[in-house]
Design brief:
Blueprint (H helix, E strand, L loop, with lengths): L12 E5 L6 E2 L5 E2 L2 E8 L9 E5 L25 E2 L4 E2 L4 E5 L14 E2 L4 E2 L9 H14 L7 E5 L1 H12 L6 E5 L7 H16 L15 H15 L2 H7 L18 H13 L5 H13 L17 E7 L7 H13 L4 E6 L7 H4 L1 H19 L1
Parallel strand pairs: 5-8, 5-11, 6-7, 11-12, 12-13, 13-14
Antiparallel strand pairs: 1-4, 2-3, 4-8, 9-10
Helix pairs in contact: 1-2, 3-4, 3-7, 4-6
């Protein structure tokens, strides 16, 4: 266990709001409440409450971004980036990460109890969007007494949330760092999500979403994750990591996993079903597909936006390729928004935002230092 510059043991916290009489109105027109948000915080909020940073997780992430849970060996998903002396330096900043609504890691989602029926929501849970996720996060931030965030940052779906934060509440965001993301899903990205959803729904154990009394549709969800994981890597990274290496010395002449890459994907799929809910997979991928801040929808009143941007992309990312980040930058420049951008050379594919720690740390540390000092 490498705990150098680690935050040590951290605890998951919960915030509750939007009681039935004050339910959150969703983009679909439906209402959701009460709502529980699971979140973690790192560092200390300064007296002026001006050093708060909101970290926004990707599709399969959660609130556990850094540090360790008691008795566990694996740290949070961005532990290399959050902590004392790291990119998000907890000696300077108060860092918050919450699990999105619709998720399955402590926040209200399809596996939660519907207070009206006193049964699990399952597919009666309303369709949610990235807009709804951000509106719920705003409730959390307000409950912490924070009126303005120093920064919002996230990769992939987290980048979508960062953009949506500024689109909805520009006056609350001093700076934003969208990483490896897009203004909207392309047809290809929607297609990958749909294949994953169909894999889940084709599993006999899915039972139209009502599987909680029985068993999760494990095979369908595992296949969906295998498909998704392929898109997170690059051809070069897969060649380096696996090539055509066999698990044994010769072919089995069967449909067993002869190649190392097959075994790896099966392992990834089997691991995923132990920590993720199949219905949440459906809801969150649908939210990403509905996300759309293109064609002038990013800012309604761009002249009022004072948010500073750092847009980061990776050369080998083919899930969210460079041209999509370039469109973000062009949209910001078109609206005369202060934006810096960087394309990091990497062979890791989309997963680079989790793995390219050194270069991201350099960029983010410098960017945040400037924003923080200028804000004082």
């Amino acid at each position: 266990m490498n705990k150098e510059n680690s935050l040590g043991i951290v605890n998951l916290q919960y915030a509750e709001f939007a009681q039935t009489a004050d339910a959150l109105e969703l983009e679909s027109g439906q209402k959701l409440g009460p709502i529980t948000i699971a979140y973690e915080t790192y560092g200390q909020l300064n007296p002026e409450k001006s050093n708060a940073v909101l970290i926004l997780h990707a599709f399969s992430g959660d609130a556990h971004a850094a540090g360790y849970y008691e008795g566990e060996e694996k740290p949070g998903w961005w532990d290399d980036m959050i902590g004392p002396g790291k990119a998000f330096d907890t000696n300077k900043y108060f860092v918050i990460c919450s699990n999105v609504i619709g998720g399955c890691r402590g926040s209200t989602g399809p596996a939660s109890i519907n207070p009206i029926t006193n049964k699990l929501y399952a597919l009666t849970f309303p369709i949610i969007t990235v807009v709804d996720m951000v509106k719920a996060q705003k409730k959390l931030i307000e409950s912490l007494g924070i009126k303005k965030l120093l920064n919002v940052c996230g990769g992939s779906m987290g980048g979508m949330q960062a953009l949506q934060w500024v689109a909805l509440y520009p006056e609350m965001v001093a700076s934003a760092i969208p990483i490896a993301t897009t203004l909207k899903h392309s047809p290809q990205q929607i297609a990958f999500d749909e294949v994953g959803r169909q894999a889940v729904m084709a599993d006999p154990n899915w039972r139209q979403g009502n599987y909680y009394e029985y068993t999760q549709p494990e095979r369908g969800l595992a296949v969906a994750r295998m498909i998704g994981h392929i898109t997170y890597m690059s051809d070069e990274s897969m060649e380096t990591k696996f090539s055509r290496r066999l698990k044994d010395e010769a072919y089995s002449f069967s449909f067993a996993s002869d190649f190392e890459v097959e075994g790896y994907l099966r392992y990834r799929g089997d691991s995923f079903v132990k920590r993720f809910d199949a219905n949440s997979y459906l809801y969150i991928t649908r939210a990403m597909d509905y996300f759309d801040l293109s064609d002038g929808k990013l800012f309604l009143e761009p002249e009022k936006v004072k948010t500073k941007f750092l847009v980061i992309a990776f050369t080998s990312d083919w899930l969210y390729p460079l041209y999509q980040s370039k469109k973000i930058v062009r949209a910001l420049k078109h609206n005369h928004i202060d934006v810096a951008s960087c394309e990091i050379k990497s062979t890791y594919g989309h997963d680079a935002f989790l793995l390219e720690v050194k270069e991201q740390s350099r960029l983010i540390s410098h960017f945040l230092k400037g924003v923080y000092q200028n804000g004082k």
